[in-house]
Amino acid sequence: MKNSTRTISGTAALVMAVTIAATTADAKGCIKGAIVGGAAGHLAHHTLLGAAAGCVIGHHEAAKRAKEEQEQQQPQEPQQSQPAIPAQAPASSKQP
Predict the structure, then answer these.
(1) What does the alpha-carbon distance between residue 40 and residue 16 come to, in Å, rounded to a whole number?
(2) Which of 20-24, 43-47, 63-67 is the least confident region?
(3) Is 30 buried (19+), middle (13-18) or exposed (0-12) by CB count in 10 A?
(4) Global pTM value
(5) Confidence of residue 48 (pLDDT cuts 50, 70, 90)
(6) How many CB atoms within 10 Å of residue 92?
(7) What secondary structure letter does DSSP report for 93?
(8) Distance CA 53, CA 45 (A)
(9) DSSP 27
(10) DSSP assignment string, 51-84
(11) How far apart are the first and last CA of the chain?
(12) Are the beta carbons of 42 and 26 closer than 8 angstroms?
């Protein structure tokens, strides 16, 4: 009975944490990470700690992925090397 009460309260806390995290404006990756972290933490008897860590890691990974996608979408401008000496106009030939 004691273990089922812990499981129910842990699950309820996890659901509340996920719900609260989902309402923040920048929660990308947090929900998925919290679910995975909560499941892993449950095996080690630290469900809430696992969910919190999973949320942080999931958010970090999602932000990193978004940054990489943004860099790929930006047009890459080729860098042209400028000559050290400016080109001189060709000498004009005089015509009589």
Answers:
(1) 18
(2) 20-24
(3) buried
(4) 0.49
(5) confident
(6) 6
(7) P
(8) 14
(9) -
(10) HHHHHHHHHHHHHHHHHHHHHHHSPPPPPPPPPS
(11) 113
(12) no
Contacts of 57 (CB under 8 A, 6+ apart): 33, 37
Distance in angstroms (rounded) separating the CA atoms of residues 64 and 51:
20
Query: Pick from 26, 28, 27, 55: which is nearest to 40 by CA?
Result: 55
Q: Is the dihedral of CA 25, 26, 32, 34 positive or negative?
A: negative
Please say whether the dihedral angle defined by the alpha carbons of residues 51, 25, 73 and 79, taken in this order, is positive or negative: negative
* Amino acid identity at 19: T
- Provide the token pair at 59: 């958010």
Q: Which amino acid is at 67?
A: K
Whether residue 18 contacts residue 10, with contact meaning beta carbons closer than 8 Å, is answered with no
| Structure-token pair, residue 51 | 């969910």
- Tokens, residue 34: 């919290």
